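During the reporting period the student researcher (J.K.) took over the structure-prediction task from the postdoctoral fellow and processed the backlog of single-chain submissions. One of the processed entries is reproduced below for the supervisory committee.
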Amino acid sequence: MNFGRNLQYLRMISKNMTQEDLAQRLGVSRQTISKWELNQGNPELTKIKEICTLFNCKSDDLLFGDLKISSDAYSEITIEKLDEFRYMKYTVISPEPEDDAIRRIELLAKNLHLKDPKIIGWDFPYLSQEQINVYHMHGYTAALVLPEGFEIKEGGLPVEVRKAGSYVTITIEEPMKNPFHLISNAFKSVFQYIDVNRYPHGRFCFEYQYKRNGIEYMTIYVAIE
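J.K. obtained the following structure tokens:
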């Protein structure tokens, strides 16, 4: 079982809860929490239920899952505040939509004479079951973040505004080395963090891929209230 490792991880992402804090909430000693986390003993069923309620998780995930992603590719999960920003977006629905959507936005940035454009993206969820199951399609939206004060004279795509707010974030180093594993696990960890801390969140989340000192990174942002 991964119970001890998972318990320690859930405690640490829950606003750095100490062993003493957790022990007090569960009505046990700090030494008991320490033994659980070292896998030197297991709690009774009623305590497992209490732990799941406290950390807003499922018992199967707590006992047998691997909640903590252990890889040097990931940064720590943080909360970041972003100022209001404006963007123009373009959505593609196809078997492989990401590249087409991003190329369209890159062309838009070129036509607007923007150097080093900031391009973000997210999965487009509004597909029919026929598109998904029969034609194996999915959707992707790429968006050009407009520099502050930049004005669109005429034409182009509609400009949308995202109000200032807080986001739970995680950064992946070299995400394209194993994108299906690295990116999906990053999203899983972010939403686990959100659930444990019970942050209200909506649908808006996005990926921002960039290079720094010749190394490629991707930062994932999930909006919280």
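The committee noted the following: The helical segments are 3-13, 19-26, 30-37, 45-55, 59-64, 97-111, 129-134, 179-197.
J.K. will present the remaining backlog at the next meeting.
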